[in-house]
Amino acid sequence: MKKAVTVIMCLLLVTMLTGCKSSGKDVLKKRIERMESTSSNPVSLEEIEAAIKEYNKEAEEISQKHSQVGMWYKVVGLKYLDKKMYGKAMENFQEALKYYPDNANLYYYVGNCAGYLGNSSLDFEATGSYEQMENYYALSEKAYLRALAIDDRYAYALYGIGVLYVYQLNQPEDAIPHLEKLLTIDTKNIDGMFVLANAYYLTRNYDKATEMFDKIIASTKSDKTKQQAEANKKQVLDEAYSN
Q1: Nearest to 111 by CA among 145, 84, 80
Q2: pTM assigned to the model
Q3: Read out DSSP for 138-155?
Q4: What does the alpha-carbon distance between residue 129 and residue 136 come to, in Å, rounded to a whole number?
Q5: If DSSP states are collapsed to H, E and C, what string results for 61-91?
Q6: pLDDT: is 85 or 53 the higher one?
Q7: SS3 category, 171
Q8: Are 89 and 80 in contact (CB under 8 A)?
Q9: Torsion angle of the four alpha carbons 188, 189, 193, 196, in this order, in degrees rounded to the nearest 10
Q10: Among positive and negative, which fits the CA dihedral 122, 127, 128, 133?
Q11: 210-242 core/surface letters (b: 16 or more CB in 10 A; e: else)
Q12: Residue 90's Cα: distance from chain center in Å?
């Protein structure tokens, strides 16, 4: 019976330690050592069940503390994002993902920050290398795609990857399905309409580009936005008729 109890306790210890940082492991280990040193070894079935409940309670408390740590990383990341400090923001979002690896919002924020960092990457030594910029854009794409794998109707991620494909990666054909899906979810997304219209234009689908600019003109209440759409439409038509 004592051997069975020892095995149960060891299994519980391994389970609770898994996934925690070294500091969390040390705290949990000390708490378990304290519990073991202050309680007698359970022998009866009732005592074993009571011991398991006690250990489960301790594990739940540790889990809640780590959950709070993950949330604070996200909060700090958002604060940095508000200040447009994209590098620090991304670091905190990546830390938060260690606690919440299936959170679509966090992947979206990583993708957003990585895109901005790619835009600002400069080759200060003038070697002609674009490796840092390409790495940031690759990270941005992977993060957006991961967010969409978790939630394929996540409008912000659909828009973000559309912008990335059209303006940073020069892959407008890859942007089109994402942006078309976005506009079935958020039918009045003017920014999404502009990006999709440009994607159609860059892929020489002039009819669809013109239709999208017409949709913007009919949908917007902003005179400035309407004028921009009309100017873009004229450019599309001029190029279409010249070919």
Answers
A1: 145
A2: 0.74
A3: HHHHHHHHHHHHH-TT-H
A4: 14
A5: HHHHHHHHHHHHHHHHHHHHHHCCCHHHHHH
A6: 85
A7: coil
A8: yes
A9: -130
A10: negative
A11: bebbebbeebbeeeebbebbeebbeebeeeeee
A12: 10
- Tell me what the mean pLDDT of segment 92-106 comes to: 96
Q: How many CB atoms lie within 10 A of CB 16?
A: 22
- If one counts every other C-beta atom within 10 angstroms of the C-beta of residue 178, the result is 25
Sequence letter at residue 204: R
- Helix (H) or strand (E) run with residue 198 in it: helix 190-202
Residue 24: φ, ψ to 5°: -65, -40
Integer angstrom CA distances of residue 180 from 91, 176, 186, 189:
31, 6, 10, 11
State the Cα–Cα distance between residues 112 and 94, nearest whole angstrom: 12
pLDDT score for 128: 82
Tell me which of 116-125, 180-189, 201-210, 219-228 is least confident: 116-125
* Residue bearing tokens 């519990």: 35
Structure tokens at 31: 């708490």
What does the longest C-alpha to C-alpha distance in the chain come to? 90
- Location of structure tokens 């407008």: 172
Q: What is the pLDDT of residue 67?
A: 72
